Amino acid sequence: MVRGPAPAERHKLDAPDAKDFNCEKFDNYDPTDYFIRMQLIRPEIPRLTVRRMTRYLVHLQGLGASDVQWVSSRELAESLGLTSSTVRQDLSYVDCCGISKRGYEVTKMTDSLAGVLGMNREWKMVVVGAGNLGRALALHEEFQRRNFSICGIFDNDPVKIGRKVGHLVIRSMRDIAHVTVMEKVNIGIIAVPAAAAQSAADYLIAAGVKGLLNLALTHIVAPRQVSIVDSRIITNLLELSHAIQTTDQRRLTL
Fold this sequence. Notes:
Layout: H1 33-37, H2 47-65, E1 70-71, H3 73-80, H4 84-91, E2 104-105, H5 106-117, E3 123-128, H6 132-139, H7 142-145, E4 148-155, E5 164-165, E6 168-172, H8 176-183, E7 187-190, H9 194-207, E8 211-214, E9 227-230, H10 233-253
Parallel strand pairs: 3-4, 3-7, 4-6, 7-8, 8-9
Antiparallel strand pairs: 1-2, 5-6
């Protein structure tokens, strides 16, 4: 379990630019704010559109890998369970026009979407928590292919510190500030139990990260200049189980 500094010292760590932060809760936090606040997208693009753009980009990258050169809005819509009009409206925000009877050029549209979403640059990340989840993330090769580079994994457990995870060595929490500055880390991934999540966040905030991906089943408090995205598999599974149960109940009433 990762333990951060004592409450009174949370925001006074010996780290570059560490300050006393005026933390506020994000009661109605929208994950898309993460992209907006880090200036990865243009603020005028609707948030729901941004979410769909991430799906378009992943799908287009797959098409490009299969040497597909052109794709129509109808084909995109059918592949992603959307309507053609929605796809066309979303892509109107991108600097890449379609051609009648041919659609969109896959390579150009991929590059345009990558630019809007900030995927045309490398993002440096660190993982806090070297348990099963943290180690799995550190070993996940897909991150690197998407321009997300994990350059450090940290824990407070003396038994874990010094062990290798892929090409990385698990380091002490005290090393976070040094690695963040040296590697120019942008994002911190919190992969610790709920009880330790806030302390992990405090370390990362004091070290100067700009965004947090919170995988813990708890709320994280952070200053306004630090963006947070909550990604909770258990919550998604509960939503899925509810959807399946609802579908089954409807079938029984037919």
